[in-house]
Design goal:
The structure holds 2 protein chains of 2 kinds. Chain A is an alpha/beta fold. Chain A has one domain: Rossmann fold (3-Layer(aba) Sandwich), CATH 3.40.50. Helices cover 44% and strands 16% of the residues of chain A. A 4-stranded parallel β-sheet of chain A has the order 2-1-3-4, with helices on both faces. In chain A, α3 (78-95) links the parallel β3 (62-67) and β4 (103-107). The termini of chain A are far apart. Chain B is elongated. Chain B is an all-alpha fold. The longest helix of chain B is centred in the middle third of the chain and has 16 residues, at 24-39. Chain B has a domain at 5-49. In chain B, 31% of the residues lie in helices and 0% in strands. Classes of the chains: A alpha/beta, B mainly alpha. The A-B interface holds A 49-50, 53, 67, 69-71, 77, 80-81, 83-89, 91-92, 94-96, 104-107, 119, 122 and B 1-2, 5-6, 27, 30-31, 34-35, 38, 52-53, 56-58, 60-62, 64-67.
């Protein structure tokens, strides 16, 4: 994969689990695709659906939301809300005829560095296959 | 849309007040239809019932995030 067809992926990672997990993956020198741009949020519950939509509509090829496993949230119930929002978001995109496959939700705990590597690699692979997000040229915001 | 569509009762007032005459009600009711089905929620059924975006269940949509 060269830099020409490297997709742009925005990742929202919760500080307590996913970001720590990503940090561990880096410390363990695992191979993480360069396509992903990490944005750290305090909790996956902080990820406003608007963040995701904005990234998507402004031309990000994929958006990943990552948080602690259900029940492990540092703030008790943040990720339960995230899950509902993700379901809503997918549903909305689907109804409006947009590609809901471009957004994804992953539960990654602080110790799951291999899972983080696997998640990012898999998703990047999938997005590369889907090709670039053309919405950027089609929608004026 | 993310917090409103699920509460849409299809009154059509949003289209009435749109200053540039965009038929937003059509979009809202369409999205609302599928969202309300997902959460088995009917807006106005019960005043005490919490809005889906303001509540959660521990055991639901467990297939998401676990690929």
């Amino acid at each position: 994969m060269n830099s020409q067809n490297l997709p742009k992926i925005v990742g929202f990672l919760c500080t307590w689990c996913s970001y720590t997990g990503a940090d561990l993956a880096g410390t363990a020198r695992m191979k993480i695709p360069a396509a992903i741009r990490v944005i750290r949020v305090m909790c996956s519950g902080r990820i406003d659906p608007l963040f995701v939509l904005k990234a998507y509509l402004r031309g990000a090829d994929g958006v990943m939301m990552m948080g602690c496993h259900p029940g492990d949230c540092h703030y008790q119930k943040g990720n339960y809300n995230t899950r509902r929002r993700f379901v809503m978001l997918q549903n909305i995109l689907d109804t409006l005829g947009l590609e809901k496959e471009r957004i994804s939700l992953w539960w990654i705990s602080a110790s799951e560095a291999p899972r983080y590597a696997q998640a990012t690699n898999e998703f990047t692979e999938k997005i590369s296959k889907m090709g670039p997000n053309l919405l950027h040229d089609e929608i004026f915001l | 849309m993310n917090h409103m569509a699920v509460s849409c009762v299809r009154c059509g007032m949003c289209s009435d007040v749109c200053p540039v005459n965009i038929q937003v009600a059509t979009v809202f009711s369409r999205v609302g239809d599928s969202l309300q089905k997902v959460f088995n929620y009917i807006p106005g059924r019960d005043v005490e019932e919490p809005v889906p975006s303001g509540t959660y269940k521990e055991e639901e949509f467990t297939e998401f995030g676990e690929q």
